[in-house]
Design brief:
Helices cover 46% and strands 14% of the residues. By secondary structure, the chain is α/β, with parallel strands linked by helices. It folds into 2 domains: 154 residues, Rossmann fold (3-Layer(aba) Sandwich); 62 residues, Orthogonal Bundle (DNA polymerase, domain 1). Strands 3-2-1-4-5-6 form a 6-stranded parallel beta sheet, with helices on both faces. The termini are close together.
């Protein structure tokens, strides 16, 4: 039976979380909103509209959303050529591929941003699918994007693992009924990821790679 290894990208495989924090903070500032960077950080991982609603509240002027989202994209685009994979990220993808896992990236990034992330990862040869949050009704923490990614592989929930760095990732994976694993490389505390449903926590991709044989991936391989 197929086994699916699903991956969030920003903060999980690429060192981009704080670049997004600054870009969102500046986009909000340009629109006249003073939001603490810490509040923005905890919202990263949500889709654009959901992030804006989360940090500004439902009482905001929603007509600003498109302008703020576009400003974020423009600001983040200035970093595209400098994006970097986290240590061990591409090696982790290749190791899991070699062990028979189908690799799927689960991301809200599209166009030039997605292309920049893929260049940073340099692992296209082992990535089977890319599931876009723009193709589902609701983004994380709803399970839609995780379900879409899993269905692309034909894997059962019991043979699917989702790796992410945000509370929203863990909630989406848990609601989908797949195994949720967390990494600390996005800056979210271990306790928050566990409360959101993470079954295992790793420092980052390199840490997981060194402990792969004792991880959920190895246990699911034995069960299949």
């Amino acid at each position: 039976m197929p086994r699916a290894a699903l991956f969030d990208v920003d903060g999980t495989l690429t060192d981009t979380t704080y670049l997004h924090v600054h870009a969102w903070w500046e986009a909000l500032r340009q629109a006249g909103h003073k939001v603490p960077m810490a509040a923005v950080h905890r919202a990263v991982g949500l889709g654009g509209g959901d992030l804006i609603a989360h940090v500004l509240g439902e009482g905001r002027d929603p007509e600003q959303d498109t302008t703020i989202d576009a400003a974020h994209k423009t600001l983040f685009a200035t970093c595209h050529e400098r994006l970097a994979a986290l240590e061990g990220a591409r090696e982790l993808l290749r190791a899991l591929h070699d062990r028979g896992w189908t690799i799927v990236l689960v991301t809200s990034s599209v166009g030039g941003e997605l292309a920049a992330l893929r260049r940073a990862l340099d692992a296209d040869e082992v990535i089977a699918h890319i599931a876009s949050a723009s193709d589902v009704a609701e983004g994380k923490p709803a399970p839609d994007s995780v379900e879409q990614a899993r269905e692309l592989t034909g894997a059962a929930r019991e043979q699917t693992v989702f790796l992410g760095d945000a509370v929203w990732d863990m909630r989406a994976a848990s609601r989908s009924g797949v195994t949720a694993l967390g990494v600390l490389s996005g800056g979210i505390p271990r306790a928050e990821l566990i409360r959101a449903g993470a079954q295992e926590i790793y420092e980052g991709p390199a840490d997981l790679l060194t402990r792969l044989d004792e991880s959920a991936y190895a246990r699911l391989e034995q069960e299949s």
